[in-house]
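Minimal example, chain plus magnesium ion.
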Amino acid sequence: MATLRFKALGDLMEKKAPQMQWPEDRVPDFYGELTFNDEAMKKYLQTSVYKQVKAAMASGEPIDRKIADGVAAGMKAWAIDHGAVHYTHWFQPLTDGTAEKHDGFINYGPDGKVIEEFAGKHLAQQEPDASSFPNGGIRATFEARGYTAWDVSSPAFIVGSTLCIPTIFISYTGDALDYKTPLLKALHAVDKAAVDVCQYFDKNVTKVYSYLGWEQEYFLVDQGLYMARPDLMLTGRTLLGNNSAKNQQLEDHYFAQIPERVAIFMRDLEVQCQRLGIPVKTRHNEVAPNQFELAPIYEEVNLANDHNLLVMDVMKRIAKHHGFEVLLHEKPFAGVNGSGKHNNWSLGTNTGVNLFAPAKNPKGNLLFLTFLTNVMAAVYKGQDLLRSMILNSSNQHRLGANEAPPSIISIFLGTQLTAMLDSIVEKVSDAKMTPEEKTALKLGIGRLPEILVDNTDRNRTSPFAFTGDRFEFRAVGSQANCAGAMTAINAMVAEQLVEFKKNVDALIAKGVKKDEALFQEIRRLIIESSPIHFDGNGYSDEWKAEAAKRGLSNITSVPESISKMVTPHAKKVLVESGILTDRELEARAEVEYEKYVLKEQIEARVMGEIVINHIVPTALKYQNTLISNVKGMKDVFGAEADAMVENEKELIRKISEHVTIIRKETQAMIDARKAANAIDGVDAKAVAYHDNVHPHQDAIRYHVDKLELIIDNEMWPLPKYRELLFFR
Ligand code: ADP
Ligand code: MG
């Protein structure tokens, strides 16, 4: 294979398509066998303990420490029966992944002999050192202790030989240091606010759940090729590389047959996920070559998010068994599609009603319209906050690129729903409605499900699309913890619903009938939030101009976006509601600035090293072969050679030009970095990296990619796009 220039690859070819041992059992037989689920709890817990745990799960309250010993005993027996020898509190620090500190079940018993120990106190709490996790200045250096505490609403599970207990992570002083703590609070806030509004319609509604169905996009790259790319290994993306002559132009990868080696990996991954009780369901090829997607059946947000984080880990591990590396970066390759993680999100009641699904009768549809318009208003007011939770150093390369949602937040509704909202604006007024008007309006609303059934127009360019019975937030990055986006959206909607109820109650107090008050408020929300509603092509330049006219923000700078985490609006949504304290929110913004600076710094360093140690020497080596060729030609042909070596001389000159610019730009990038590093204040430093360091990357890349096109293929030191994207 002439195009494969890397020995590691040859070795890996041997390992290609390992013989998979499929479980002989069928999915229902092994589904969830590695989680301490209802079935396991029934078997391993005493009945009274089981009942108390179930009650705690339903209420969201922590379990009573008195029963913790009982739970721990059952959990330990179950875990040991399933091969576990260690346990860990599994938590979500403000980094990209999850963290765990393993402790063995072993201890000395009273007689000095070794016993297997795991008590209530071990289950309920662990004390990892918090000092090595991002905390945004919350943790004073003299107090490094952090606490993790069991999140009863997410079941424990076993990975390898370790029992993992999902936990929240807080500092000694009680400040949240993770993604889970505010998420749980936001879910609680939206539950309460939504129940209060549902009470206008149905007194039986006592609980509102928030649901998430994520769609995880990823790339697979051969492990041998990956190892030969320092940029992929250290930054998760290619910092250099000329696009492959064939990439995704023919659109022949999307939904195409899954390559066999990939299919075997996917099946292995699915089995492992299903054993962990993760309901993975859908898999397919994505648009770019070697890009794929995995999606489960939706679950309650907190559990769904734990499952997504777990899947990202499991994926990376399983891929290695198959000679692949998983790329979860949002934009591993320039010029082909990046990866996102669509967040399908909805709210549903304890009575089984999906609040984003049109109902069969006018009353149900008034409920639907109430929630729909409140979401619109929340997203309109919270566009900057929402973006601040998802725009970061890696996702910046995807948002606003042509295949991904722009950095403008807008909502797609579809023609039928739009017509419905228009008619409400037209027909409802603050004046008292006549009985005929009311009947006509209700009839119109009653017809909603009929017209929506056929609503198949699915706009793929919208960052926040209504898709029939849920919203799909598509701007979330592929490697993100969904908790950021889910905390923001649920908190924003909670805040909006509280305001809505206040306004409706005020109207009712003035003597307006309940239905009419609801209609009037819905109408007001439709009008007020109309700028956020856009059904057209979100990728077009016209939309950018139009959005600017509407006053929608289009922030592409990460540091500027982060600054929107701490605006008065953000504080109203997150702090006044008690989801985060002011200090915690400020600390989070600080952590985001820090992460941005560090990631940009690493990229700049890696790029500098590759360019100076790999690219420039290769260019000079090739240039030298050209020079010897020219000299040789002159030796052989004398003056006659002048015409014959004209092209070579031109090439020699070109290489010199590229190399000169590359060296100059690399030095300028180093100088800009030094200047940025000297700046006090992490927000100003982030701005300096954005404005002064990052732009050099583009200049360097341009010239390196030009060199790739002219230098001998055999000499080029990095695997090329055609190899990374097409070898499978
Ligand atoms: P598509 O790619 O067409 O958007 P997928 O089937 O890939 O659809 O993914 C859709 C995701 O949305 C799945 O995870 C699915 O379970 C989830 N989903 C479906 N209905 C809801 C809902 N009411 N609330 C939240 N998520 C949902
Ligand atoms: Mg989707």
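The mean pLDDT is 90. DSSP finds 26 helices and 17 strands in the chain.
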